[in-house]
Amino acid sequence: MPERVILHCDLNNFFASVECLGREDLKGKPVAVGGSVEQRHGIILAKNEAAKRYGVKTAEAIWQAVQKCPALIVLPPHYEKYTHYSRLARGIYEQYTDQIEPFGIDECWLDVTGSTKLFGTGEEIAHQIRQTVKAQTGLTISVGVSFNKIFAKLGSDFKKPDAVTVFRREDMERLIWPLAAQEMLGVGSSTLRSLHRVGVYTIGDIAKTDPHTLRLVLGKGGETLWRFANGLDLSPVSVSGEVPVPKSIGRSTTTPRDMRTAEDIALTLLWLSERVSHELRENHALATVVQVHLRDNALNVTEHQRRLTQPVRLAELLRKTGYELIMEAWDGVTPLRSLGIRAAELVHEDESIQLCFGCDYEQLERMERLECGVERLKEKYGRDAVLRCRQLAGSKPASHPAFRKIV
Ligand SMILES: [Mg+2]
Questions:
Q1: Which residues are catalytic, by number?
Q2: 287: β partners
Q3: Distance, CA 107 to ligand 1 centroid (Å)?
Q4: What is the CATH number of domain 248-406?
């Protein structure tokens, strides 16, 4: 079998770069993209090179960033633009191979082993792609070229922006092993703490540690890391094929009796959010916009929506956002006959933003796992098998025990 040729392409400072396209006035200035700029608690989602030089960091509070860099220009995010440019880049990758695996909205692995006769070596293909992306979109990418996915990804981080790094098999000990352990995919903050406890600091340290020891320290994942560090990752670039996501997913209900209290509304909304969340998961989609609509007992309809600072599908976050929107729209007095919540402007989970944006990413992961687990229980034992405490409350909300109709 010939050595595989894997590329990892990473759009540099993606959100900030997209926001700066065509904005001559921003040239050379420190720019960041921030979530909920109008709120004091907004966080930095992305920053450009100039902002980086001031020490502005992703996920820190906007006010902290502004303290370090008073001239910082903070722009709101535009997810529809990011999706658009992500697809443009992907269209360019597709001219070189059909084996493409997206990793978040701004990164892809490409297996170009079968394309080298036509387009040249991995390094040459990487440069062609880099130049084409730049010419056609105005954005820069960094590309790592290697014989496995893990080292290709290390390469795209090694030199950026607008650069190509090749890691050959013979470069492993000299170039890869001195790198810090956390540079490698799979080494998160808790894994890193465990590694430090046993004196493992670099990728080379991982490679040279007995895999059984790593297994004792980290569990099964320890051996995987050992294989990664030794260049033994054989995982293929999996072709996900673009599964189209629906435009939006919503649920609404008319309750058996009018909803009169915030508690009534909260409970109804929780049920609906869980259904929407479940369907988002089934469709591999996340929402970037949440919409609610209310109909009162005089049949007046009110609609309200909000763009999220990052795509979500957790029932808990849909519920929270929906509740805030309803509380903005509802006068608190008029009884409500029906309400609905809709997840809109959906993005495929492969295109969603997988990095920590200040919201505790590990916490989000845990919540996602928890909700998935609860869903599996419900599938097995029925929808009432697992209830949240508030769903058991004795207040007999309008929506309990069952909806008259969910549409
Ligand atoms: Mg990137």
A1: 107
A2: 312
A3: 6
A4: 3.30.1490.100
